[in-house]
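Changelog-adjacent note: as of this version, every example in the card shows the full chain rather than a window. The one below runs 267 residues end to end.
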Amino acid sequence: ESPCIYNLFIFWFIGKDKIEEVVNDFKGAGVALGMFNTDASIIDFAHSSFKFALSRELPLYLSTKNTILKKYDGRFKDIFQEIYDTQYKPLYEAKGIWYEHRLIDDMVAYAMKSEGGFVWACKNYDGDVQSDSIAQGYGSLGLMTSVLICPDGKTVESEAAHGTVTRHYRMHQQGKETSTNPIASIFAWTRGLLHRAKLDNNQKLENFANKLEEVCIETMEAGFMTKDLAICIKGMNGVQRSDYLNTFEFLDKLAENLKLKLNLSCK
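Full-length structure tokens:
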């Protein structure tokens, strides 16, 4: 809030003199930001990304702004490239897929004009913004899955990325009708169940989770949907009540279709 000099000091534990850099000589009020990462964290991120893309048999792209953040983002670029060249390149080539680094602005433009079919490894802020952009581009945040993966391949956390939908819950508490899209919550469970099935080698559980996901997609494609998706089709002002199901009607429709699919698979 007053004039000051913002300095960065680096103290080495052994062998080197300290480094002091002037970040900015503030003549008045302002703000500053400090940011760090560790090689261990970046390496874990790289392995998680490479393994996930390999499991999906899709090419992997890493996006950074290493032309501006030459040291910081350059570290991500260098570590990813080294790990790919030494550990994953033959595996990727055997699947007919690849890894490539791209600048974040170039990657955003590519994602907008592409038809998908790739895995996009983003730094934290970039991923937070672009994941919502892509989810909305497909219709709704209610269709978005979110799975956190550990490098060991054994531990995952699956969640609905859209949050708690507080506004709809307050309407429900008041006895008002809601049309809340449950797909992301359902897929949070199915992705968790699929991983459990993988760890336990449980084919029945895997089949159930896959069929539930198929039912969700098939039901929406057949024209049964919640209000958020109806708005995507007809616009906010063009939607009539007959164009969508409320929360419970949609869940009942999914349950009905799931029973049919499970009965057919048993015959």
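Structural remarks: The chain is about 50% helix and 15% strand.
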